[in-house]
Amino acid sequence: MTSQLVALCFDANDPLRLARFWAGVLGWEMVDDPRDGITLLPSDDTGFRMRFLPTQEKKNGPNQIHFDLTSTSLEDQQQTVAKALELGASHIDIGQRPEEGHIVLADPEGNEFCVIEPDNKFLADCGFIGALACDGSQEVGYFWSEALGWPLVWDQDQETAIRSPHGGPKITWGGPPVMTKTGKNRLHFDLAPPAHGDQQAEVDRLASLGATRTDIGQHGSGWVTMADPDGNEFCVVTPR
Length: 240
Prior knowledge:
Low-confidence stretches: none
InterPro entries: Glyas_Bleomycin-R_OHBP_Dase, Glyoxalase_6, VOC_core
Organism: Nonomuraea purpurea
CATH architecture: Roll
Distance between the termini: 17 Å
Shape: globular
Number of domains: 1
Oligomer: single chain
Helix content: 10-25%
Strand content: 25-35%
Protein name: VOC family protein
Structural class: alpha+beta
CATH superfamily: 2,3-Dihydroxybiphenyl 1,2-Dioxygenase, domain 1
Strand order of the largest sheet: 2-3-4-1-13-16-15-14
C-alpha cells in the first residue's frame, strides 16, 4: 500500500487572488474548505486538488515545481496564453531560446508555468495539466515512484518521470545540476496514507525510503511534515 497524492499546495501572499487565477486558467471549482482553506477541485482526471495557504514570505528565486500546460494547436496555445494574461499572468524570461516552442509565464505571485507547444510528444496523451515539472535528482524520482506507487515512465540520462496508473499529469525531474535549496519551497505535496491506513505507519515507511522528519514551524495537529531525499518538504495528513 502506498501514499495518495491528495493536493498540491501553494504558499500565497494573497490565497484568494491566486486561487481565483488558477480556477480561471484550469476551469476548476473553487471551494472554501474548513480544514483545507481555499481549495480547487479538479474537473478532469488530474487526481489531486490544489490548496492555497497564507504566508507572509515573499517569493525568492525560481520554484522547484512548475506546471506544463498542454495545447492542441498553435491557436489553442495562444488562447491559453491570452486567457492567463487576462487573468493576471505575465511573460517572463528564464533563459528559454526563441526556437523553443513553449511559452513561459508567471502567475500573479510570480510562480512560473509553461504553455507547451502542440506537437510535444512526451505529453501527447496527457490532459491540460501535462506535467508537474520538478527540479530534482534521479534519486528523488525513484523515491516518489516508491512513495506513491506510480511507475517510472521515463528514466534516461538521470532524468525521470512517473505517472499514476489512473492517468493524469506526469511528475518529472530534470536531473543534475539541482538548484541549491534556500528556505522552504513555495509549493509542496500533501499525501494521505492508503485507505484505512495508519499515519504513523506511513511516516515510518516513507522514512525507510529516504524521507526525513522536518520542522517548518507548522502549528496544530493532523499532519506530519517531512522532506524527500532532495530536501523538498511535503506533508502526510491524517485520513478524512
